[in-house]
């Protein structure tokens, strides 16, 4: 018997999002936008980094003219670190952020988070990972206790869904149909 629809492929990607010290007062607004954009906030913590920790976090920027100002800014107050999950999370998060220079973002991407909350190239309100390897490194840096397992893709994802997720959903939905509660939630 042929299934009516092909089995869905649901690769989920994680990325790091930082709400920088200059906009921690707007955290709830920003989180609301993140959630309305379809992201799941997997982990969240507030912390304050020392200049040395900031230097380590932004080690790939070492030697650039703005590096001292960047580490000073990032260590100037508390920040909020979040692990976001979604299909193609890294590219969607970068799109939601907009260009790193907030002044340019206001001209070219006026609805982006950096255009709305940032003030200039340094105080651009938020951080996002550039690619998968930097996301993994940055998540481990901000959440050292986190276990970052490889996310299954392709046939491994289909097998995982068929073995673990689908049977649970089928049992739950079947029970729900049999009971027909007034409030299914």
Automatic annotation (TrEMBL):
SMART domains (UniProt xref): NDK
Residue stretches making up the Nucleoside diphosphate kinase-like domain: 12-150
GO terms assigned for molecular function: nucleoside diphosphate kinase activity
Ribosomal protein is among the record's keywords: no
Keyword Ubl conjugation attached: no
GO cellular component, one term: cilium
InterPro entries from the UniProt entry: Dpy-30_motif (IPR007858), NDK-like_dom (IPR034907), NDK-like_dom_sf (IPR036850), NDK_H5 (IPR012410), Nucleoside_diP_kinase (IPR001564)
An annotated GO BP: negative regulation of oxidative stress-induced intrinsic apoptotic signaling pathway
Keywords tagged on the record: Kinase, Transferase
Family membership: Belongs to the NDK family.
This protein's name: NDK5 kinase
Taxonomic source organism: Crypturellus undulatus
